[in-house]
């Protein structure tokens, strides 16, 4: 009976990208399969998406070089010291989450059916007839960088729209180009099919019935609906929290906490209320700021916490669970903003 249930769950996972562990609230997610459920003409390439997670050995380095580099990276053991107030609070928060995270990881290790396919998630899966693979770009200037230059207001993006009616479920064979401003403008795909878009020499795919607004944080008020009944019922926020890591600083610009207080969450929310999901790292400084200032300022009540436990292709954690400054998980705080 259990084997049959496991097979059924694996079949659902291979189709949907979501594996639900029995008798628990734990799930395992394959983002590529989840993303590809939104597309019919295109497919995200697993090999491109998972490139850095499956490349365990750097090119040009043999085993001897890897061992040598490992010795260089080995740090001296630090002497134990007393934790300060914030570190004690962070450790207490971790101890509350730890049993749940250990149970989730143990559930993964016991799911032999899922483990049998985890190592091959980066392999290309069968795509629908007529669909094309889309490689994720990784070597060109990001849209964020383009938005920070003086030419940003002049940049335009070209949408390749089907000639057929937007209400049609079948994409037309002919297309027309629509050129619209890229920044400080709502770029919309109102059709029931994904749409190709081109900016400079790079191609992008807009999911069906979707839109995006690429702008500076100071322009967020442009998203406030004319009437509260047209507001958002679900708001996901992934703030660029300040990070002391030089490596992280080079990846994206960060902002001090005070800037997030200005987000008009109340005005963006639907008149009947809205769920607000906020990503946050494990720094106690940010958790205290959210509890004491940010959520009260937004008019949001914290109702639950989700944990993203990060694992490798072999199901091991990306770091030791008790590694103080590099926990292998992040938090997604779920709150509610009353209309």
UniProtKB/TrEMBL annotation:
GO molecular function, one term: methyltransferase activity
Listed GO CC annotations: nucleus
Pfam families in UniProt: MT-A70 (PF05063)
Xref: InterPro entries: MT-A70-like
Family: Belongs to the MT-A70-like family.
Protein name: Methyltransferase-like protein 2 isoform X2
Protein's organism: Cucurbita moschata (Winter crookneck squash)
Organismal lineage: Eukaryota, Viridiplantae, Streptophyta, Embryophyta, Tracheophyta
